[in-house]
């Protein structure tokens, strides 16, 4: 099978090779999935470059333990181990795991008890794959706080994979969403559910007299110190990035000791729970992943280069389906 391979951490353009490798064989509790769509996301890019040294604790201290990257997939089950009871050959499935599923390949194996679910009814493979990583993080960030009907929430970076999912989830919870985005995407974020938009290329969103119950910085470009003034007396600030000198971790430890404005730095957990929730929303027509570009597997290194710009709108999908094997 064709797979993207890397044997050392570094810049994707230098460390990646597209190679032919042996197709994996499922163990007794595993399923073999023919991958039809996957994404290149900021988690993949962060793990391959090992930008945050701490990620090496999970992926390998000096060199990567798993040579094939990729954290999400949508595809079809081609074979099952003899002990598998929850899935059968032909099932359409999707999943995500930030501890790496090696989904940047034509096939992968994973345990039937892993983070794999039946696909949302009516969803395409591209849509299902694009509904995992950003949506999982957005769901976890939002679940950490109790967002109520009518509360005012500002989402900075509303056009990333996390931000575009967050706007939709907050809209679903009936929050009043104010989204910060680039000029070219103001209409998009309105469609996702924002009642008000701010163009970050024209204005600094922190220069305002507006007050918010929550500020979600889904792109990690702001700071608590700049946003504090914008929060209501019990307002909460959440960022997807550690912040300068890991200041968001520091504030998340210190601010809860006092009454008033707080910082929360959620550690995303329980992927199966978030994906089940997103699946339900997709089936109800209340969530649709934003897809920026689609690349074939042969162009996956180009896709990594694009993701590295930090300018993707929503998700970047790798479509593995050729005309020959279209299901
Ligand atoms: N904490 C976690 O567990 C976790 C997990 C995964 C990712 N992350 C981090 O979360 C961040 C977001 O990742 P992502 O995949 O959703 O998106 P992304 O690829 O980082 O894209 C960011 C989006 O934000 C917009 N943007 C860029 N600069 C901006 C600014 N100054 N103000 C407002 N919007 C701006 C971009 O729009 P333009 O087109 O205008 O540039 C783009 O659409 C990344 O920094 C990533 O490292 C954290």
Describe the protein in words:
The chain has 327 residues and is α/β, with parallel strands linked by helices. Helices cover 26% and strands 26% of the residues. The strands form three sheets. Strands 3, 4, 5, 6, 7, 14 and 15 form a seven-stranded mixed sheet that branches. It has a six-stranded parallel sheet with strand order 10-9-8-11-12-13. α7 (186-192) links the parallel β9 (176-181) and β10. It starts with a strand and ends in an 8-residue tail after the last strand. Bound molecules: NADP nicotinamide-adenine-dinucleotide phosphate. NADP nicotinamide-adenine-dinucleotide phosphate is lined by residues 41-43, 46, 134, 137, 156-157, 159-163, 180, 182, 200, 218-221, 240-241, 268, 310-313.
Class per helix and strand makeup: alpha/beta
Helix content: 25-40%
What is the helix/strand order? EHEEHHEEEEHHEHEHEEHEHEHEHE
Q: How would you state the average pLDDT, rounded?
A: 96
**What gap, in angstroms, lies between the N and C termini?**
18 Å
- Could you state the oligomeric state of the chains shown? single chain
Strand content: 25-35%
User: In DSSP terms, counting alpha (H) and pi (I) runs of 4 or more, how many helices?
Assistant: 11
Counting DSSP E segments of at least 2 residues, the number of strands comes to: 15
